[in-house]
Amino acid sequence: EKAERFKEIGNKQCKLGNYLSAIDLYTQAIETYSACATYYTNRALCYMNIDRYNDCFEDCDAAIAKDPNCIKAYYRRMQAYERLGENTKAKAECRKILELSKDEKEMNTAKKDMARIEKRLEGQAPSPTFAIANNGKHELNPTLLLIKQEADKYKELGNKQLAKKDYITAEKHYTKAISLFDNEAIYYANRSLCYWNLKDYDKCLADCNKAIQLDDSYFRPYYRRMQVRELRGAYQGALEDCRKFIELNKDEKQKATAEKDMLRLERLLKSEQPAKQSFVWNELKKNAKRIEFVQKPPHMRSRKPLKRIHIADVPPLVQAPKGIPHGGSTKRQTIPDAIIDQMFNNNTGERLTVPEEKTNLEHLFPAHSNKLKNMFSPPTTPSDKPKSFPSTAAPVPTISRNLQSNDVRAAEVKTAPFVIPEMKPSDKMEKDKINHEHQGLNESARKQKDPANTTDIRLSIPKSTAQFYTTWSGLNEDLRYQYLKLLKNAPLSKLFGASLSNQMLGEILYILKTHFVSNQVDVTNIMRGIVENECISILALMLNKEDRNAVEELLNYMQGQHLKEEELQRIRSKLLA
């Protein structure tokens, strides 16, 4: 089972193209269980995809040794031979598959592969390089023959990548073949096709010239060079290459296509107009837009002469500030220091006083609500004197004072008289009730509710965490004791939930220590519910000294109840660790 898990993960990595990771996983599967041939064939596929053909052959041989009827091993070996250009060996592997396989699908696939390989073997002809490299002889010496065979392997790999339109990888394979054997015109011609599709026309033209230099009877480089020359506007040279291609080529279909190209080139050569091409010199980018030249007939052209724009060099001049005419006064007004202090929140200099604005907010507030009145009054600067609000018995007198700053005199500010609205008896009673509630707000927040007000509360086992917390927060100390006593056998770990706070934990410990211990009530289940809470490790760090003392007292009480030492130690480690 472990080996199968390695294989499944390796299959996923292989599908994603992570062949090195897949090889490691298949290797672990083989080390776990080495009797399965599938692990070897899967790893052989990864080796083949990263061009490690020797390792691929070794895994195929190992798989066949484990299972002589392993069709996948023969198929992997056939694929590797075909990629290396060894078509004869690949054909032999196909025959072996046809002999062993009983599956119709596998046999049909093998027959198609056999037909493809046989067609390739029939189409192979002696390369003209043999005659060039050996001065008229049709055979190379053994050393050059081995090198040529190795270079042909890279050429076959390049052909496969070229068929997949992976021009960058194909160009690398052809370059490797040329580095091994640089007298073969086919290598240069094939690489020129890669450069043509990669829009590298300089290298494409250079490879065509080299291929023609090595074998002037090879027709393919002429057509590629014709395309490059036509692209660059050299129509005469392109026409000569096209004629040479027609002369050397024996394929009637290709010759018919070339004849059409020749007619087009002849028309372009005779015509004075430029060629209508999709691009010239460089390919247009996707975000670029072609702007064509405007060719108007003579009767539509403008008769007005073109206006020549005079261009003169002007020496740099120091220009006056914007809005000030040349020769005018550039003296600026001085900014008062008070404004600068106000901008930078600096209160060390002179103060810029602002005229007061009269406010008519007094009638909105009661006579004793100075705090609200100050909140809604305009802010005062530190230089202003504290304002004294008028008494409620008389209207506010008119106040006026002179405000001087930078020779500026402020206008007199008058405030409206303050009128006390008449209060009805019902309004006064409502107001007294509100004031009474506000006065007792702080005290009611600190104290528990009076038991007399909670006698009507019916305690029941809660069904959710929210119901437990809502009930707990509305109980006084005695009712909390009764509530916990009711829940001592309930699933408290679920009721506490993730919302248990350190404050509530302290309250529970206090109730347990104060009431449960004095009344000799069992606390074991409640303590278990506390320590089983998911947040207890954090809450234990937030216990104060009083809470820790309560835990110690509860542990001593539980020890007296003959609780197991293991249970006590678990609770102690959770709360006091």
UniProtKB/TrEMBL annotation:
GO cellular component entries: protein folding chaperone complex
Pfam hit, one: RPAP3_C
Ranges: TPR repeats: 151-184
Biased composition (Basic and acidic residues): 424-450
Domain RNA-polymerase II-associated protein 3-like C-terminal: 462-548
Keywords, ordered alphabetically: Repeat, TPR repeat
Cleaved signal peptide residues: none
Record carries keyword Transcription: no
UniProt cross-references to SUPFAM superfamilies, sorted A to Z: TPR-like (SSF48452)
Disordered: annotated segments: 371-407, 424-455
Family: Belongs to the RPAP3 family.
Protein name, as recorded: RNA polymerase II-associated protein 3
Native source species: Anopheles marajoara
